[in-house]
């Protein structure tokens, strides 16, 4: 009998009633391992109603007690790490060690959220005027929602609901239907940690569920991570319905390699950041920019054998660099980009399209690909490929290298590799990209800073997690109070000032 994944609403499993199901694959073998119920509008509304009912009492819980739930949730995640990583690996295809990293990076945001009593403290000014005190407070929004992608089924949900719930909101999570098991398990653990029924609900679905979340007036804010096309749609629809929104889109992350860079370290970093998780990361390095032709030639000479030697295999086996891709459809899409790059005239130095693994011929595997002499007018440079494909775009000088990521439609992350502090500082200041690494291959900030790109990589004004996450999931209220003493002086028809 095929396993079925259903919804988690008001603290219990709720079986799907729409009659629609999606396939959940085992990427290692290519087999369908489960079915996931796709929610109707009415089923999604039940999840929203559950969160709405839970909100008054949860928001009234003081921040320290909410923090205790987060501390307990953190302990439960650590106790169940092996189970979560194995579950994630079976549905996504990333190797176990990378799956552990997925869970751990989400857990770090939960650790940040444990400090919510301090993070919610407002400001106070005594004696702002004669007998007048001013203070501000941060208050929760109500029901909020998150729509998350397949590539980080643990990390990104925790980025969202951890901060939101700690702030006193209740949450509706619509995870990717490609790998739904981990988000559901996280909701169960949150309830085990002490969150009341309805505080965290999980509804599986597709566009029907998404559109219900975007248009329902009970949902006050929506957080999204996915492609830029959908991010823009999420942003526009939420704005049209008066909702607060943060919508993170696609990326084309560049690595600038200066002539003085340590090329041994650069090659190691490019291999890990470009091909880890089969390139299915929004922060993957997909473009290497060697500065000068000589650096480009040497970089290709060193990269070629390393890409050819990449170990691709089942995600649950040790010694594997990366596993299969999430679905056959996505793998074939990535292959079509490689086909296009050859047609456009790029030099395919390493071709991983025909990779096949004995005994796993139906798995969604693809070997690493390496392009050289890619030009900035090629589609393989302009578009996000989201697979194990690294493109080399050569730059003649520093200014040309700065211009490439600065002028690209995406502005998620960029890194520069150099021993020159002045060049690094100048680059970090001038480059038109939201997150910058200096000798760092994947410039993802730690949980107590904020994550977010620029241009078509992000729609909305407030970023993910860190202080920005607290701002996103709260509204500020400012109180001006006076406790008068002495004799009243009568009405004053002039606007108050400090003059």
Query: Rounded to an integer, what's the Rg over CA atoms?
Result: 25 Å
**Spatial order of strands in the largest sheet:** 15-16-17-14-13-19-20
Text of the CATH class of the largest domain: Alpha Beta
Query: How many distinct folded domains?
Result: 2
Separate helix tally: 16
The whole-number mean of residue pLDDT values reads 95
Strand content: 15-25%
Q: Label the structural class.
A: alpha/beta
CATH architecture call of the largest domain: 3-Layer(aba) Sandwich
What is the first-to-last residue Cα distance? 78 Å
Largest sheet: 7 strands, mixed
- How many strand elements? 23
> pLDDT under 50 segments (min length 5)?
none
CATH homologous superfamily label of the largest domain = Aldehyde Dehydrogenase, Chain A, domain 1
What does this structure look like?
The protein is α/β, with parallel strands linked by helices and 499 residues long. It folds into 2 domains: 270 residues, Aldehyde Dehydrogenase, Chain A, domain 1 (3-Layer(aba) Sandwich), CATH 3.40.605.10; 186 residues, Aldehyde Dehydrogenase, Chain A, domain 2 (3-Layer(aba) Sandwich). It is built from 16 helices and 23 strands. Strand 4 and strand 5 form a beta hairpin. Helix 3 packs across helix 4 and helix 4 runs parallel beside helix 6. The radius of gyration is 25 Å and the shape is globular. The chain starts with a strand and ends in a 17-residue tail after the last strand. The model has no long low-confidence stretch (mean pLDDT 95).
